[in-house]
Amino acid sequence: IDGILCYRVPLMMKIWSLMIAFYIYLGTGYGQDISTLNNGSLLWPEWLRLNFIQYCGIIDGAIWVVLELVYIVYNLWQRGPSLCHRSPGQLSFTLLSEHMLNLAFSLLGTVYINQERNFKRKPALCSQAAMVDCRDPRAESIEALWETLQPAIYYWGFRIFVFCVMNRKRFPIHIRGNPSFSRFTSSEWVKSMRVNAMWTVMLGVCVIVEVYFVFPSARGLDLSTLCGFDLLGEVYGLPQQGGQCADDSNLLNFDCVSCISSVLAAQVLIFLTSLVDIYFMFYIFSAIVGSFMGSRRHLNDLKNTSVPIDLRPGKGKEARLFEETFGPGWQRVWCAMLKNLMDESYIGPRQADSLAAAARCSLDSATLLGPSDSKREKAINLKKFPELASERLEFFFHSLKWIKEPSGPVRGSRFNPSTDALTGRDFDTGTVPSLTMIIPAYNEVVIPSAESLREGATPEDAMNQNPDQTIGVGDLTNPPIGDGVNTNLAFIISQFPDEWIYLAERLFREELIEDASSHRLYKRFMANVLHPVVESEIRIWAMLRTQSVGRTVVGALQTGRALSALPKIQEYYAQRPDKRIPEDHAEVILAHQTYGQKAPEGDPANDAAVRLLLQRYKNDSLWLVFDLNPATNDNTKNLVNDFLRSQGGYGIGAFTFASIKCRWDPARQDIAIVAVLPRQFPLRLGQGDFKTQGKACNQLNGLRFASGHYIQALDCNMGVFIGEGFKVPYVLRAFMPLGKKNRVAPRCRYLGFREYIFTGREGTVGKCHASAEWTFGTIYQRFLSGMGTRMHYGHPDFVDGFWARNRGGMSKCSPVVNLSEDIFAGYNVRMREEASPHIDALEFDKGRESTFNAASNFFSKISGGSIAVLRSRDNHLLCERVGIFHSWSFYFTSVAFYLSNFLIDISIYLYVGLFIVFTLANIDLGKLSALGSTFSTEWVMSMGIFSLFPQLLEMILEFGALKAFREVLGMIPAATFFFIFQNKNISSAMRNGAATGIAKYFFTGRPMANQHQTWRD
């Protein structure tokens, strides 16, 4: 009910386009001759077209009567107590009156057309194509035609007027987001016209597809022609014909019932296809328009590593671009990037030296080489380097073009290299926007343990693990801990063989191991004879290549490390020795929900890994925030109590709940508490299935200590290349450009960017899931941003910190309703007429589920969450006030993917059932072929193939046509099986959510691809 009421505007517009398509189809000749010939022209209808206009008015009025009755009753039941409250989004008396008037108009219109109807049957002779004397007496003159159509024309005229008035866009949708909000601006008008035109074209193409492809598939499959059943025959206008159901005494016979069932099933299938075709049309248009927008953003060959990089100072194109963007110290920036890549073992020492020499600099970032000292004077061929490092560098150089463009972060003002470049002569550290990165963590792996890396090679490791070590029928099991062939470390090495060699070379250069043999390093690790420092380095290496909390923390620290390499930043903190670089400009908060908790919530191994992270990165601006509650262990409570006593406080006996902020203390070699914020309530409110959403609550726990002007929430499966960290200050200027005169409010509240899905190399499931996620985060997001309706989807968007703090957080955490908590941040932005654009100049790493069960759990969670979204007040409010064509954009930016998959699943059942009923009715392929129906042919090319268009065009844009076709065509078989299964999974989760009213949270765990669960789970 919520879904139909919320999206009744796009639903009715789709039904109207379906009516227009069928009206056109009745004169095309693509159906039966009696049905689609001699029905007049578009502007002078006769016979079936004349009848169609009249009974469509009756059907439309009846639908609106039902919709308005349900709307009024349902809203009075759900929101009746707020009827007299004057608050945006509440059920007002004015809104209720509008719907009651529409109900009255729809009812009166239906009765009026029905009383004045003038239906006539079409003579059987009119089935001849050359029939010249087949004029409809109702259309012999303009007066006769007007007399026949007058009630329907009056109704449709008033219907369009009432529809436009009731569903017009309200300004603002909810409340004004900032004081500078303006209701009518030329730019907003242009955007609205662009959206209206885009949806008009898409609906128009749907009409063409339905006229020439969808409706002809049911040619001859009507009750009169096939079965001789003359129900409402005068309304349709078809002449009476013979068949199994021509005699009323045969209506309950098996042949008649099976014939009627087959026809009705075919017509319902055609109707569902016509509803879903806009979904595939949206894919096609997002691919075409999104690739065009990408070309406008200079994304051609964005990651094509065959394009050389020329860093020769004063000569190379990339060198000039680098210098213009970062200033005269660009070579030091380049060396800092190379050192970071080498320290994380993405390139080897010799490769780092050659890349540095190509820019005439040395890796100590202190010496610049002269032309005679340079070892090479030619462009860099990135194809010779590891794939991950080469793609990162190629993207970095290609994205620098955006910074100085008119559409870049300094849009509306001129980029001044002297003051705006990070190493410019007059650069001021105050122009760097401060940023707080919050990483909400629960019980995810922080750093892989040495034991877990050694596991996985025995046959027992490949079996599902029993949690309590007892075996019984129906016991729940844990996933395997390996594939039974290779250890988990060996599996990671198989994904990154070059990087493992670089790790051995680096450890040898640092004199931590005796030789640089990567094979011997692995053998000694498995024998557990390595020094603890070396073992720790291997764990960190594995951490940076798996989906772990530590990888995300290290990635978040890259922005601070990039700033720390800038000379002016170093001078700033040299005057403030009590602060860590760059504490005032970038900080990372690890908001760990279960740190210090007793079992089973807490995990001592995870706590130790958190402390290891804090110790290893003690010189970086890294903080730990955790929750103090009755389940906190005694050691942690004593630590908090000692801090409060030292500050002259009352101790923890004065409160029950608190948020604690810590950092690493090198003197004590343990965490040191720096702030305690008592709370009256626990982190999560409620009981049982009705507890507030944990991740959103944990984000809010970290947000309480955030000091940055801008906030970024990172999931525990992310990573960042330091080159992207150097671009973050430029990207953040998109909120408030340096030359912006009116600084009352920023240009946007959320700022989204690209993601690189690093789990695409982990098997077939990982590749399928990564491709879908990458497509969604690039071309799809770009298109939604162009349509002005992009939401926040849990990606690492930047957020205006002031805005988030004053709205209770970055996402909503209400129980049950806000399972998909992140999208409601986008709802808040849209309701306040704020902006949430998407850019392609920045890219963070992200992991996705790479095992079948984990991927299924992910889709189940999101699908169930979409049902909960439909029930939310925010969704109802937006649907009511967003506008006519914008309601289409909102539908596709919210729940269209899941609802369309649900309808596709129903159509699959219906398609199979249709041929079963055809068989029962003795209608074989030969008879279907004789009727002219395309059901007689095999559907070799499914409509679902169009969903590959966005990925194909984006890959052509970024990688080139050859790689795009090789990748996309090569994965079609695997993707077909994967997404067929996920389609069933999505529809099942939606049915369960609709039936129970509860959106269940599924913990995916994000295991590695070598940990395969059995079909039992």
What would you say this structure looks like, in words?
The protein has 1017 residues and is α/β, with parallel strands linked by helices. 51% of the residues lie in helices and 6% in strands. It is built from 38 helices and 10 strands. The chain has a 10-stranded mixed β-sheet, sandwiched between helices. Helix 4 (47-79) runs antiparallel to helix 5 (93-115), helix 7 (186-214) packs across helix 33 (884-894) and helix 10 (254-296) runs antiparallel to helix 34 (896-920). The longest helix is centred in the first third of the chain and has 43 residues, at 254-296. The two termini are 33 Å apart.
Strand content: 5-15%
Taking pLDDT < 50 over at least 5 consecutive residues as the criterion, the unreliable ranges are none
Helix content: 40-55%
The spatial strand order of the largest sheet comes to 5-4-3-2-1-6-9-8-10-7
The biggest sheet, with number of strands, parallel, antiparallel or mixed sense and barrel status, is: 10 strands, mixed
| Count of DSSP-assigned helices | 38
Output mean pLDDT: 88
Please report the total strand number as a whole number.
10
Gross geometry: elongated
